[in-house]
Write a structure and sequence with these properties.
This protein has 420 residues and is mostly helical. The chain has 18 helices and no strands.
Length: 420
C-alpha cells in the first residue's frame, strides 16, 4: 500500500512539475521586469524610488500583521464571551458590535471591552445586562484612572447585593462616581468597603445611595476601605440585635433598642439619635461593639455639631444621573488619555481590516487542518509498510557505511606498509 502510494505521488509530481516550472519561470520574469522598472526609477530619482517602495511594502506588511494579530485575539475573546454567557449567534453579534463601538470611542480597546464582558458573564449577568453594564464600567474605570478590571467587579457585585431594588449598571456607576468626588474614597477602597458593607446595607433595607453615603462617613475618618465596610457592618449588626447590657446603657439615655434598629430607622436617623443623646464613647462601645463603637462616636459627634457631610453627600448621590459620563470626560481630557483613545480607535481600523479576510482565513485554516488530519490518518493506516520501508532503507545505509569503513581500513593498512 505504501509503495503504491509513494509511486503515485511521484507520478503526480512528475506531471505537475512542468506546469509548476512554467509558472515559476513566468513569475521570475515578472519579478525581473518589476525590479528593472524600480531600478530605472531609482536611477532617475537618485535612490528615492526604491526607498519609498520598500518603506511602503514594509509598512503594508506590518499593518497586515498587526491586523491579523489584533483581529485573531479579539475574535478569541468574543468567542469566550459567547461561551460563558450562553449567547446565541444574534446575541454574540450584538455583544461584538457593542465592544467594537466602545473600543472606537473610549480609551479602552475593543479587546479590553471584551474582557470586561467576560467578567460580567462570569458574575452571572445575562446578555442584556452585559450590554448595559460594559459602557458604564469602562467610563467608571477611566474616570477613576484605574484598570478596567477593577470597575467590573464592584459594579457586578453591587448589582447583585441590591438586586431586589433593581439597580441598573449606569445608576451604580453614577453613584460610585459621585462618591469618588465627594469623599476620601478611590475606586479601590470603595470596592473594598462595598464588599464588606454592601450586603448589610441592602439587607437592612437601605438604598445603594444611603449605604454608599454611610460607608463614606467611616472612610472620611481615615479608615481604609475594608475597615470602613467592616465597621459599618458590625455597628449595624450590633444595633439590630442589642444585648441586655446594651439595652441597659440605652435606658440611661431614655432610649430603647428600637430607637437605633437599622430595620426601623435610616443610618442618618440612628446617628442623629445617638448624637442628640450625647452618649459617651464607653457606652457606644457597649452598644455598637468594641471595634466600631469608637468610630460611631466620632460620626455621631459630627451629626450633633452639624459638621457631618452625610446629608450633603447623600443628596449629591441621589441626584447623580450622568455623573460618570461627566467625570470621565473631565478626567480623560489630557494628552496621555487622548493618546489611549487614539490607540483604541486605531485598533478599530485594524479590526475593520481583519473583517475583510476573517472568513476566508478561517476556512483556509480549517481546510489545512483537515488535510493534515487526513495525511496523519493515511500514515497511521500504512504504518507497517512505511516502517518496513524505512527499516530497509536504514539497513541499506548501514551496509554502505560498514563497507566504506572496511575499505578505509584496508587503504590505511596498505599505506602504513608502504612507509615501513
Amino acid at each position: 500500500m505504501a509503495s503504491s502510494n509513494i509511486a503515485k505521488l511521484f507520478v503526480e509530481i512528475g506531471f505537475k512539475d512542468k506546469e509548476l516550472s512554467k509558472g515559476l519561470r513566468n513569475a521570475e520574469r515578472g519579478l525581473t521586469r518589476l525590479n528593472t522598472s524600480i531600478n530605472r526609477m531609482n536611477t532617475a530619482l537618485g535612490g528615492a524610488a526604491s526607498k519609498a517602495f520598500y518603506a511602503f511594502t514594509g509598512s503594508v506588511t506590518a499593518f497586515m500583521t498587526a491586523s491579523a494579530m489584533v483581529g485573531a485575539r479579539f475574535d478569541r475573546e468574543m468567542t469566550f464571551v459567547g461561551a460563558i454567557s450562553n449567547a446565541t449567534e444574534q446575541d454574540l453579534q450584538s455583544l461584538t458590535d457593542k465592544a467594537r463601538d466602545l473600543g472606537a470611542t473610549t480609551m479602552y480597546t475593543a479587546t479590553q471591552s471584551a474582557t470586561a464582558m467576560q467578567n460580567f458573564a462570569r458574575a452571572g449577568m445575562d446578555v442584556n445586562e452585559i450590554l448595559d453594564a460594559t459602557g458604564p464600567a469602562l467610563k467608571l474605570a477611566g474616570a477613576a484612572g484605574e484598570d478596567m478590571s477593577l470597575s467590573t467587579q464592584p459594579l457586578a457585585a453591587t448589582m447583585a447585593q441590591f438586586s431586589s431594588q433593581g439597580y441598573e449598571a449606569g445608576t451604580v456607576a453614577d453613584v460610585f462616581a459621585t462618591a469618588l468626588t465627594g469623599s476620601l474614597f478611590d475606586l479601590r477602597s470603595l470596592t473594598e468597603a462595598m464588599k464588606y458593607g454592601g450586603t448589610v446595607g441592602a439587607n437592612f433595607g437601605m438604598t445603594l445611595e444611603e449605604t454608599t453615603a454611610a460607608l463614606a462617613q467611616f472612610r472620611n475618618l481615615g479608615l481604609e476601605g475594608s475597615l470602613a465596610g467592616t465597621n459599618f457592618r458590625m455597628a449595624m449588626a450590633h444595633a439590630a440585635k442589642a444585648t441586655d447590657k446594651a439595652r441597659k446603657v440605652l435606658a440611661k439615655y431614655g432610649l430603647t433598642a428600637k430607637d437605633i434598629n437599622p430595620e426601623l430607622h435610616s443610618f442618618g436617623e440612628i446617628m442623629e439619635t445617638v448624637g442628640e443623646a450625647s452618649m459617651s464613647t464607653t457606652d457606644l462601645l457597649e452598644v455598637f461593639g468594641r471595634r466600631a463603637g469608637a468610630n460611631i462616636a466620632g460620626i455621631a459627634t459630627q451629626f450633633a455639631d452639624g459638621s457631618t457631610t452625610f446629608y450633603e453627600l447623600l443628596g449629591d448621590i441621589e441626584g447623580s444621573a450622568g455623573a460618570v459620563e461627566s467625570l470621565y470626560q473631565r478626567a480623560t481630557s489630557n494628552v496621555l488619555d487622548e493618546f489611549k483613545i487614539l490607540k483604541s480607535a486605531f485598533q478599530e481600523l485594524l479590526l475593520t481590516t481583519f473583517d475583510q479576510y476573517r472568513d476566508p482565513a478561517l476556512s483556509l485554516l480549517k481546510d489545512i487542518t483537515g488535510g493534515v488530519n487526513s495525511l496523519t490518518a493515511g500514515v497511521k493506516e500504512d504504518s507497517n509498510a512505511i516502517r518496513a520501508s524505512i527499516d530497509e532503507l536504514f539497513a541499506y545505509l548501514r551496509s554502505i557505511f560498514i563497507f566504506a569503513e572496511g575499505d578505509a581500513s584496508s587503504l590505511i593498512a596498505n599505506l602504513i606498509k608502504g612507509f615501513t
